[in-house]
Amino acid sequence: MKASCHCGAVELRVELSEGLATARRCDCSFCARRGAAAVTAPMGGVTVVRGADKLSRYSWGTKTAKHYFCSICGIYTHHQRRSNPNEFGVNLGALEGVNPRDLGEIGWVDGVNHPSDQ
Fold first, then answer.
1. Domain that holds residue 46
2. What is the pTM of this model?
3. Which of 85, 34, 35, 33 is nearest to 62 (CA)?
4. 62-112: per-residue pLDDT in tens?
5. For residue 42, what is the domain's CATH number?
6. Rounded to an integer, what is the distance from CA 55 to the centroid of its chain?
7. What DSSP designation does 20 have?
8. How far is CA 42 from CA 29, 45, 55, 77, 118, in A?
9. Beta-bridge partners for 48
10. What is the rounded CA–CA span in Å between residue 51 and residue 71?
11. Is residue 102 part of a domain?
């Protein structure tokens, strides 16, 4: 699949682990503010096709999760997961031809009570 930011400066080629069935939202302090649902890709399943120099990265706390966004338009494209650093979460809304609304109710992950924080 193809994913891109809003302005088109960043383009990704994405191979999802289980298609759109993995779509989830997270309620951690960062994701709740970001508001984007994500789908799962394995570590080798995300390739930056264009705009690597336009990607910015944000990490905090344990610095395990690495959140990437376009430095021009600000759209979150993907992140390396804290829950499983061998996976990426990919912004469902950034996938070409996918309207998150068509998926109906999207489940939630409890990021507030993350196992790494216990």
1. 2-97
2. 0.91
3. 85
4. 888 999 999 999 999 999 998 899 999 999 999 999 999 999 999 898 888
5. 2.170.150.70
6. 13
7. B
8. 24, 5, 19, 15, 26
9. 12
10. 10
11. no
